[in-house]
Specification:
Blueprint: H1 3-41, H2 45-64, H3 71-90, H4 108-135, H5 137-164, H6 169-178, H7 183-193, H8 199-230, H9 233-251
Helix pairs in contact: 1-4, 1-5, 1-6, 1-7, 2-5, 2-8, 2-9, 3-8, 4-5, 4-7, 4-8, 5-6, 5-9
């Protein structure tokens, strides 16, 4: 194993650590400086996340389908979508939403479902880091910046849900920090299979299918419920454009 390969692995684990810390940093900052803003606009964060994910999905699809045989990547994308659909169905006995669009509070089942979904999402982030850094360190750091910004916003929103589910502030902070550590599982899997031809690409495709599922079956329905409940589409549009444009700038598109 050469020095350059070891350095790349160190870069990947350092990047994963920064992303994992983003959740705790985001929540603590919100508690001190941005509490009022996020309390009033928490339901719009999903629109921001939708803009972020659309650019990530576009970037992944562009990379995945730059191959001569697209059948297997396409099947992997479909497999990822169906897997997360089945997982969501199994965990959806308790309704989950993003913001004040329903007439009931979150409960502990909502919190467990959210934490499991977040753990899987962070594993996907870890999988993404490996091939990106292997391809180009500059692209890797650009991806880290995008994931970092998204993670801070996402974990702040999830902190509200954990608190509403009845968890104490220390426990909510602990879980908000513990769950993102699953990114290291994704990194480990990515490094383990990185030398197997074609597998890394299929994992990327599988993860992309999961992201597509989150946007189509979670984010977009939540936005429509919020608009229908409050009749205020403009804030959602503003946050969506903000997330979209931010990621365009980060990705350099």
């Amino acid at each position: 194993m050469g020095y350059s390969h070891i350095y790349m692995i160190v870069e990947i684990f350092a990047a994963a650590g920064v992303i994992a810390l983003a959740s705790l940093i985001g929540v603590i900052s919100m508690q001190s400086f941005l509490k009022d803003f996020f309390t009033k606009n928490a339901r719009y964060l999903v629109s921001f996340a939708t803009g972020v994910f659309l650019i990530l999905i576009y970037s992944l699809i562009t990379e995945i389908f730059e191959v001569s045989n697209i059948l297997y990547p396409l099947l992997a994308v479909a497999g990822g979508f169906l897997f997360f659909t089945g997982l969501t169905t199994l965990l959806s006995k308790a309704h989950h939403h993003h913001g004040k669009t329903e007439h009931h509070n979150h409960n502990k089942i909502d919190a467990r479902r959210m934490l499991l979904g977040d753990a899987l999402h962070n594993m996907g982030d870890g999988l993404l880091l490996v091939p990106i850094f292997m391809a180009n360190s500059t692209l890797g750091f650009a991806a880290v910046l995008g994931m970092l910004l998204h993670e801070m916003v996402q974990e702040i929103a999830e902190f509200f849900i954990l608190k509403e589910a009845g968890l104490s502030t220390p426990m909510a902070l602990f879980l908000n920090f513990l769950t993102p550590l699953t990114i290291f599982i994704g990194v480990g899997i990515g490094l383990f299979v990185s030398n197997i031809e074609g597998v890394a690409l299929l994992l990327l495709a599988f993860t992309t299918g999961g992201f597509i599922n989150i946007v189509l079956r979670d984010f977009i329905p939540s936005i429509f419920r919020s608009v229908k409940y409050e009749c205020a589409p403009l804030p959602h549009l503003f946050f969506f454009i903000a997330g979209f444009v931010l990621m365009l700038l980060v990705k350099g598109l």
